[in-house]
Amino acid sequence: MERSRVPAGQRPQPPEGTPIDPTQFAKDMTTQFRQRLSTRRMNQLSSLAQARTSSPARPLVGAPQSPSVTDAPPSYSSLRNIPLVPQAPHPSDLRSLRFRNQLHMLSETPTNWENPGLLDDALRAVPTERIYAAAEEQSQVYKAQAESLGKAPKWTYADCVIRALMTWFHDSFFEWVNNPPCSRCYAPTVGLGRTPPLPEEQARSAGMVELYQCSNAQCQGLERFPRYKDAFVLLEERKGRCGEWVNCFGMLCRAIGARVRWIWNPEDYVWLEVWSEYQQRWVHCDVTENTWDQPLMYTEGWKKKMSYIIAFSSEGAYDVTRRYVRDQKYANPRNKCPESVLLHILAEIRAKRRARMTKEEKFRLQGEDMREERALCACTIQAIISGINNLSIDSLLSGAHTTPRSDIDAQKAAERAAENAQSQRVHRSGESRHGSPRNQQNPQDPPR
Ligand SMILES: [Zn+2]
What we know:
Blueprint lengths: L1 H4 L16 H31 L41 H13 L9 H7 L5 H22 L7 H17 L1 E2 L12 E7 L3 H5 L2 E9 L7 E7 L2 H7 L1 E2 L1 H14 L4 E6 L3 E8 L4 E6 L4 E2 L4 H5 L8 E4 L2 E4 L1 H4 L14 H16 L4 H31 L3 H6 L9 H20 L21
Parallel strand pairs: 1-5
Antiparallel strand pairs: 2-3, 3-4, 6-7, 6-10, 7-8, 8-9, 10-11
Helix pairs in contact: 3-12, 4-9, 5-6, 8-9
The chain binds zinc ion (ZN).
């Protein structure tokens, strides 16, 4: 028994004088020959692999480490990052560390809404009866439509409440401001740049103030536009740009009892996602455009390129880029940190937000995270299938790509965006909320 455990190649030679078994001898020689051949092949493969790729091949994470001749298996570049494992940024990787700080800071925004006393107060600014009535009416329409088709309604009353709240906020509550008009003579103003906030402005959460001058030669008065960060201050101010709109509306969604996420992207735009209990998913919600469940409006509609799209809430942080960017032609490079480091940072933020939660709550959220991950994977698969469907036989034969037929979602998004652009031109001339205002008089000022 002992003998069989020793590898044949290392088998001790029989003591001198012992008669040699020719069959056994032949067997041993064959085994030794095979081993040498295998070692040589492995060496050749690994030197080939090293020559092909500049980066050293690394074993797949979780793969058993066999005591093979070489530590480096052949490099399969497409599999190099699979599975992706969260990795802390290296102390010398300043770029990743900067992005980490930025994400941690941004993640605080939706936590500022979590103030039960102030949320109750905020609700006083909302004509709740009017909103509930509008929601009831809309949900009855969905119900009737669904009954006539023999299907389940698309949205329920709770979803309609958020939509009615958004329409009220958009149409009659919050004002969009590019250049504030002169408060003395109401003439248009010209941007002069930024100035530090006064103590009272700072006390009300203004980190920065934009300064404008009246264009009327007889007046030339100065106008200050503090950029407030506190959603409860914004409830009194009722004006601003995309950042202020989304911040204040997100807080009101919380006041009305909805679960809400603040969605950030570095290409200077923000929006929200609201949880639909009925559909069991996060729904895109853009209050500055009064649009609901149109996640492709930025790429297919506005032709906007985006890199990272991160959802922050009081319950954590999640990379939701795949929901919004489904075509590579709208993807900006993601170069603020390695993908494995981004996973680590988002896990850090989730752990911080969930630290005080009960075990059950954490478990429920983890389940939700997993379901969302599956949904986002489905977005990618759908995008790939749609890409394949859009390939025509002619383009394949000629090796050229014709303009792909856009899918129904994309068409709808484009139509919706065009409608919105039209309506916006009507009531806010010279104004764009896409992060790149037209006729911008002060290029230094961030549109958010
Ligand atoms: Zn004036």
